[in-house]
Amino acid sequence: MTQDDEKFLRRAIELAATAREGGNPPFGSLLVGPDGAVLAEERNTSLTESDITAHPELKLARWAARELDPATAAATTMYTSCQPCGMCAGGIERSGLGRVLFALSTEQLGTLKPPAGPPSFRQEGPALFDEARVPIEGYYV
Asked: What is the pTM of this model?
């Protein structure tokens, strides 16, 4: 890790503190371009915006997918206060970002908050494979 990496991670932690001060979960992230310039910053706003998807990592991934060409996106680094959750990791993957550097791992975060319970919803499936595959078949070729 470079001194710049440490500087940007510290900024992500500052953004997390700002999120908490604003009444939101304490998570912050920033996206740095290939030239080392900060392209965008975000903090969690899931409570104040009543949007369960308003995680900073996902907001930055959506921004990058809209605003950056694929080559630039692939050359960026996202700095984030905590390891991205599954939802955010999916968005980051689909946006084509090149690198994510996080301060706290999911495991470390787990030691700082109450344990999560089992999922509160049921999942059932797969079902209707022959019908469900029709709109998808050939799309990824």
From this structure: 0.90
Amino acid, single-letter form, for residue 54: A
85 burial type by CB count under 10 A (0-12 exposed, 13-18 middle, 19+ buried): middle
Give yes or no for a contact between 15 and 43, defined as CB atoms under 8 angstroms apart: yes
Q: The tokens 């070729």 sit on which residue? A: 141
Per-residue pLDDT tens over the stretch 49-102: 999 999 999 999 999 999 999 999 999 999 999 999 999 999 999 999 999 999
Cβ neighbors of 29 (< 8 A, separation 6 or more) are: 12, 15, 41, 42, 43, 56, 57, 59, 60, 78, 79, 80, 81
- Which residues belong to the active site? 57
